[in-house]
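Entry type: protein chain
Record version: 2
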Amino acid sequence: MYRSLWKPIMFMRCERIPFLAVALSSGLLVMEGGLWVKVGGIVYFAVAIALVGLANSKDSFFFQIIFRYVRYQDYYPSCALFPGRAERPHNF
């Protein structure tokens, strides 16, 4: 069995998708801003990576659970409908 089934692959204690989102957004600040915006981008990167790492240290599948929850909202609504799913599910 692959190890990534029960323990996800981490980079700097973060999952790959949240790390890329933080790195790209802070990279835009560093590339396009003035001096104080660059400093803010570096501070933002450090703080955001620390928070994402903290969330992943508590639950290593934290962001995968959130992404799955958002993706399945159309199929499993919070109210009881017959036959238990939305009229037109978005599966494309």
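Comment: The CA atoms of residues 76 and 84 lie 7 Å apart.
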